[in-house]
Design goal:
heterodimer, A: 250 residues, 8 helices, B: 3 helices
Chain lengths: 250, 154
């Protein structure tokens, strides 16, 4: 049943697949992200309580959701890398981690910028904010572990274990606002039942989430390609690829 | 799946499971200490049988009772009552309140308990959108209508 996947465990095939996917991912990401952001920032109505300040939601919520989504993707790659011992999967972990770390940082930063005018504080040690900060440290830990081994296969294994253990944090982040009382409000769209946001505000938000998801995928794919080439620099297919790109450029 | 992969999968799952249960137990043991604030009824009636002591530094979170905001005429001193589902707590504060502060709004105040039901606050934070308060709180607060900060008149 999974036979069709098998060729992509080979780095050369994986590189080709990425090369085919990358243009589609990047173009749709740019178009959707631009539409959603412009719609949200310029045309969506202002909030009845927070006025125009609420518009930071169009950056904050997508990056926060994707900081967790990207982590799940990284954890799946780590699981495949550990159980099936695929070199390409550990390279994917290394490629995805910095993308997720940047998304987490954006979520924390925009959250602080939003918290100051609305709540009256940049930061408060409530369960949601603290668990999201731990997510940032998990990403940084995965990156550091991968880099700290000279043997990248060993580094990939260590980073993979850390990435998998960190999965425990994902439900904690998501349910922190339900399990404990926090300054951060509860879920607006990632819950069962009707989203508690007006449809004309919701649609641009969904576009922004989709656009950022595509952008994260595009960045991860691009980084994955570089990681493949870096790790296999002495293999004939990389050299052939390099010669081809060189002749294309000239 | 061949036996070696199965063994690795089991080992990885075991590690994740052990860490998850360790963290789960830790969070369970810390329990309510992870809560950011006490609710007014927890301060008056106690939380799991433990009442906060007078002089204790704590946070309280609740709804500002309508009609309870009293401003001093010639200083920034202000006092208001907070409620969740039970008794109310009076909060005194000196300073500038956040823009979202108004009657009916959920807020979180940090300060010292000076009497059983009075808090001298050092910091007042607004919790936006009471729709996201705990269900029993939202229930108790139904019927409180929103007033735009610019029209609140205090």
């Amino acid at each position: 049943m999974w036979k069709w996947l098998h060729p992509y465990a080979k780095s050369e095939k994986a590189f080709e697949l990425c090369a085919r996917l990358l243009p589609w991912l990047s173009i749709s990401a740019i178009v959707i992200l631009a539409t959603g952001t412009l719609w949200g920032l310029m045309f969506a109505p202002a909030d009845y309580q927070q006025g125009d300040s609420f518009r930071i939601i169009y950056i904050h919520v997508p990056s926060a959701i994707l900081s967790m989504g990207v982590y799940s993707a990284m954890a799946v790659a780590a699981l495949v890398g550990l159980v099936w011992q695929l070199r390409t999967a550990t390279m994917a972990v290394a490629a995805i981690a910095p993308v997720g770390a940047v998304l987490t940082f954006i979520a924390l930063f925009t959250g602080a910028a939003w918290g100051k005018p609305m709540w009256g504080t940049w930061w408060v040690w409530d369960a949601r904010l603290t668990s999201e900060l731990i997510l940032l440290f998990l990403y940084l830990g995965v990156m550091a572990l991968y880099q700290s081994f000279d043997d990248k296969q060993q580094g990939g294994k260590a980073a993979g274990v850390m990435a998998l253990v960190g999965v425990v944090n994902l439900p904690i982040i998501h349910f922190s606002v339900e399990w404990w009382n926090t300054l951060h409000q509860g879920a607006t769209i990632t819950k069962f039942g009707k989203p508690s946001i007006a449809p004309e505000m919701l649609w641009p938000l969904l576009l922004c989430i989709l656009g950022l998801a595509l952008a994260s995928a595009a960045l991860s794919v691009y980084r994955f390609q570089s990681e493949l080439m870096r790790r296999e620099i002495h293999r004939p297919w990389v050299q052939a690829q390099a010669r081809k790109e060189h002749s294309d450029a000239v | 799946m061949n036996p070696r992969r199965k063994q690795r999968l089991l080992a990885v799952s075991a590690v994740v499971l052990v860490v998850a249960s360790a963290i789960g137990l830790m969070l369970y043991a810390l329990g309510q200490n992870i809560d950011l604030f006490y609710t007014p009824s927890e301060i008056v009636q106690g939380k799991k049988g433990v009442k906060p002591q007078v002089g204790q530094r704590l946070r309280v979170g609740g709804m500002v009772v309508e009609g309870s905001v009293r401003r001093d005429a010639d200083s920034l001193a202000v006092s208001f009552d907070l409620v969740d589902t039970g008794p109310t707590i009076t909060v005194s504060y000196q300073g500038i309140l956040p823009d979202l502060f108004r009657e009916g709004q959920g807020i979180v105040a940090t300060g010292y308990l000076t009497q059983a039901n009075h808090i001298q606050a050092e910091e007042v934070l607004a919790k936006h959108d009471e729709e996201y308060m705990p269900p029993e709180l939202a229930e108790a607060m139904k019927g409180i209508k929103h007033v735009k900060p610019s029209e609140a008149g205090y």
